[in-house]
Amino acid sequence: MYNWLIDSGATHNMTPFRHNYVTYTTASMTVRCANGDSTSAEGYGDVLINLKKEGKDPIPLLVKNVWFVPQLDMNLLSVAELAQDKITIYFNAPSLPSFLFRNKRLLGFIQSINRKYWLSTTGAEPESFRKTLI
User: Fold this and answer.
1) Closest Cα partner for 89 from 73, 72, 111?
2) pLDDT digit of tens for each residue in the chain (134 aa)?
3) How far apart are CA 65 and CA 63, in angstroms?
4) Of residues 2, 6, 8, the one with CA closest to residue 76
5) d(CA 32, CA 69)
6) Which helix (H) or strand (E) holds 83?
7) Residue pair 44/67 in contact by the 8 Å Cβ criterion
8) DSSP per residue over 5-33, as a string?
9) What InterPro entries would the database entry show (predicted)?
10) Nearest-angstrom CA–CA distance, 42 and 132
């Protein structure tokens, strides 16, 4: 539930997991899928992701304006939304790790698995950081 696919075709960040949110607003929005189908988003808000860094403490990343789409089967991070939040992605060849930066500061790593790019997370909810926001 804490794995995030980096999606160059997505116009918004999206998750099917309601419990991921630290802030949440109920709203009704339409999501158009790549295959032309439509589904509904039930709200949006901010989500915390714990980014994995080799040999270092995880870095909590607050991702804003994430749509809640229960019909999805995975979390999606929009390349366009990340760029708007001043996050830069440096893609490498599939056999090498790619990188996520903000203001020239390394935030985390991206792995290529079966031609899809996945954000490397700790797989754990960033509870300690969540408490600092409350």
Assistant:
1) 111
2) 468 999 999 999 999 999 889 999 999 999 988 788 889 999 999 999 888 777 778 888 999 999 999 999 999 999 999 999 999 999 988 888 889 999 988 888 898 888 899 998 876 544 433 444 43
3) 7
4) 6
5) 11
6) helix 79-84
7) yes
8) EEESS-SSEEES-GGGEEEEEEEEEEEE-
9) PolX-like_BBD
10) 27
